[in-house]
From TrEMBL:
Domain of life the protein comes from: Eukaryota
Known EC number: 4.2.1.91
Domain ACT intervals: 307-398
CDD domains according to UniProt: ACT_CM-PDT, PBP2_Ct-PDT_like
Function: Converts the prephenate produced from the shikimate-chorismate pathway into phenylalanine.
Listed name of the protein: Arogenate dehydratase
Organism: Brassica campestris
Class of enzymatic activity (EC top level): lyase
Domain Prephenate dehydratase as annotated: residue spans: 116-293
InterPro entries: ACT-like_dom_sf (IPR045865), ACT_dom (IPR002912), Preph_deHydtase (IPR001086), Preph_deHydtase_CS (IPR018528)
Reactions performed catalytically: L-arogenate + H(+) = L-phenylalanine + CO2 + H2O
Pathway annotation: Amino-acid biosynthesis; L-phenylalanine biosynthesis; L-phenylalanine from L-arogenate: step 1/1
Compartment(s) where it occurs, according to its Swiss-Prot or TrEMBL record: Plastid, Chloroplast stroma
Keyword flag Chloroplast: yes
Length: 418
């Protein structure tokens, strides 16, 4: 996949353990962490983390902000010396005098103002829109790779990451499943974004001039049939993100190439919309997960979803038993994904079979519709634990229940009609 060099400031992946400041010229180091360090292979991992969680009133992050609102220090150290409230910035003053209320003790706010939210791509990417939907008024931080977004949160450069995990047409974004396992962030929410693709080119470029269409692999996959219907049987090239493709065309004045990206990307990078709504299905939607350093406290007063990952040394034969633990409790599954078990990709079947046969080892990811605060979910997981050699709860979080309808073509649509 071609890597384009965007002109906007973003967090970058670097090979050197350098600075981690989100500036155009500075790079973030991803390190070479071994998978096992973050996998947490203990059988009781999910139980201990949820036991700790349920005994906690507030997260570390929340308690730090509570401390700062009580004593005026952002570093969390107590200062009992009276301070001059008037010397503080106006937005700080009210905080100092307001006593703690029950709302201060509830999980992190959903509105997201002042939150720094890492996403993969450049401005105009769908991931940026998803970050804004998940946390309105947040400060969106572009990152050049998914892994950088994970690290930005781990290193406290960002408070949250919003990353795509699956699309209704293009399927799963496998890289993020692997990274969820390798890193220790928690899923604290999900957001579904209708994805409305446009074909973008430099002003004056006509469809007949095109020799190439570039986009994120998901963008190309989601528009595959429509491109053919439009007679665009030209080279299709994968790049890092949809808006990055638009930026590349604009920055390099490439006149034989079109990008599949959003109408907002057209606006930002000064491109024209040659065709609007070119996704193969009008209801095209991508599901993103919101990630944080701390899990949220699961609740039962609204629909929750829980995401887990598990494995077993004896391979796939355990799957039926695991799934039955949910079926018997009427817990609906919303997603099953399998990925190679990178720690043990292949197992030789030795003993009686003399080491010739081998089977592939998988990690199974399951999302189910229940909260970890519910007894039926806890019982199901206790049973799953019996059948598996590795089990981790990735998060228990509110389901995105917002309704959406297929988006109509935008009014700026120009030359091609579908
Ligand atoms: O390239 C972008 O604009 C992205 O935000 C990435 C991404 C993805 O990874 O699936 C997000 C949503 C769309 O499905 C297409 C691409």
């Amino acid at each position: 996949m071609r890597t384009l060099l965007p002109s906007s400031p973003m967090l970058r992946y670097s090979q050197s353990p350098a600075t981690v400041t989100p500036s155009r010229r500075r790079f973030i180091h991803c390190g070479n962490r071994s998978d096992s360090s973050a996998i947490g292979s203990s059988r009781s991992d999910w139980q201990s983390s949820w036991a700790i969680l349920s005994s906690k009133v507030v997260s570390q992050e929340q308690s730090e902000s509570l401390l700062s609102s009580v004593n005026g220090h952002s570093n969390g150290s107590l200062n009992l010396v009276p301070f001059d409230n008037n010397s503080l910035a106006p937005n700080q003053q009210s905080k100092k005098t307001t006593p703690l209320s029950i709302t201060d003790l509830s999980p992190a706010p959903m509105h997201g103002s002042n939150l720094r939210v890492a996403y993969q791509g450049v401005p105009g990417a769908y991931s940026e829109a998803a970050a804004g939907k998940a946390y309105p008024n947040c400060q969106a931080i572009p990152c050049d790779q998914f892994e950088v977004a994970f690290q930005a949160v781990e290193l406290w450069i960002a408070d949250r990451a919003v990353l795509p995990v699956e699309n209704s047409l293009g399927g799963s974004i496998h890289r993020n499943y692997d990274l969820l396992l390798r890193h220790r962030l928690h899923i604290v929410g999900e957001v579904q974004l209708p994805v409305h693709h446009c074909l973008l080119a430099l002003p004056g470029v006509r469809k007949e001039f095109l020799t190439r269409v570039i986009s994120h692999p998901q963008g190309l996959a989601q528009c595959e049939h429509t491109l053919t219907k439009l007679g665009l049987n030209v080279a299709r090239e994968a790049v890092d993100d949809t808006a990055g493709a638009a930026e590349f065309i604009a920055a390099n004045n490439v006149r034989d190439t079109a990008a599949i990206a959003s109408a907002r990307a057209a606006e930002i990078y000064g491109l024209e919309i040659l065709a609007d709504g070119i996704q193969d299905d009008a209801s095209n939607v991508t599901r993103f997960v919101m990630l944080a350093r701390e899990p949220i406290i699961p609740r039962t007063d609204r629909p929750f979803k829980t995401s887990i990952v598990f494995a077993h040394e004896k391979g796939t034969c355990v799957l039926f038993k695991v799934l039955s633990a949910f079926a018997f409790r009427n817990i609906s599954l919303t997603k099953i994904e399998s990925r190679p078990n990178h720690n043990v990709p292949i197992r030789l079947v030795d003993e009686a079979n003399v080491g010739t046969a081998k089977h592939f080892e998988y990690m199974f990811y399951v999302d189910f519709e229940a909260s970890m605060a519910e007894a039926r979910a806890q019982n199901a997981l206790s049973e799953v634990q019996e059948f598996t050699s590795f089990l981790r709860v990735l998060g228990s979080y509110p389901m995105d229940m917002t309704s959406w309808s297929p988006s109509p073509p935008s009014s700026s649509s120009s030359t091609l009609s579908l």
